[in-house]
Backbone:
């Protein structure tokens, strides 16, 4: 604090945050696939920054679960193991189940219209990576409509890893993906608008399970 007892002004957002944003976007748009090596010297050269901000950015992304740093292998984009998929799916399911209950119990018609709008965006997705972004936006809207701040914070804690999970899903197969995902989400919106808790919970669970099955190879998308 300064002499008047006031909090000092915050510094501008750091360069490491900007570097992290750019690497994150490169992961999300498919330029760095799961398992890809991320070399500090190459990243610093590509982004015209010193290695310090790159190193700090990679630590930030590691905390988000997007990259894995190991002394003997360097830094790689996270590849989700079968255990990772199971844990992430179970946690997402618990959070989403509560979100569905809260949305049906308290969301306004305007909230539901916002959720529906994100589903409508899927109809215009040009490729699988854009569809994944739309999928994440849809679930962002569901958690926002729940009106439960701590639940939204919990979702934010795994959001990047869920994005990585969906990237893993399209990495396995995109057959029928651009047609199937909008249809699934229209059904989710209809169940929420009908305020049918059990039907909505079942549909959301089925939606999650289909993605897990594609990753595990036990289901082929139609």
Residues:
């Amino acid at each position: 604090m300064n002499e008047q007892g006031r909090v000092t002004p915050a510094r501008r957002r750091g360069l490491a945050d900007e570097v992290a944003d750019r690497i994150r976007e490169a992961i999300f748009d498919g330029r760095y696939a799961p398992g890809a090596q991320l070399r500090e010297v190459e990243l610093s050269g590509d982004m015209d920054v010193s290695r310090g901000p790159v190193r700090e950015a990679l630590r930030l992304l590691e905390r988000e679960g997007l990259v894995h740093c190991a002394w003997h292998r360097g830094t790689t984009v996270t590849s989700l193991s079968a255990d990772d998929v199971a844990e992430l799916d179970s946690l997402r399911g618990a959070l989403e189940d509560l979100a569905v209950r809260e949305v049906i119990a308290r969301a306004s018609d305007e909230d539901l219209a916002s959720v529906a709008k994100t589903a409508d965006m899927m109809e215009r997705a040009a490729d699988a990576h854009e569809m994944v972004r739309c999928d994440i936006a849809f679930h962002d809207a569901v958690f926002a409509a729940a009106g439960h701040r701590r639940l939204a914070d919990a979702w934010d804690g795994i959001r990047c890893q869920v994005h990585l999970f969906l990237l893993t899903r399209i990495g396995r197969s995109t057959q029928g993906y651009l047609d199937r995902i909008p249809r699934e989400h229209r059904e989710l919106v209809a169940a929420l608008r009908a305020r049918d808790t059990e039907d909505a919970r079942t549909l959301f669970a089925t939606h999650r399970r289909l993605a897990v099955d594609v990753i595990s190879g036990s289901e082929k998308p139609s």
About this structure: The radius of gyration is 19 Å. The chain has a mean pLDDT of 92. The chain has two domains: 15-77, 82-216. Strands lie at 37-38, 67-70, 74-77.
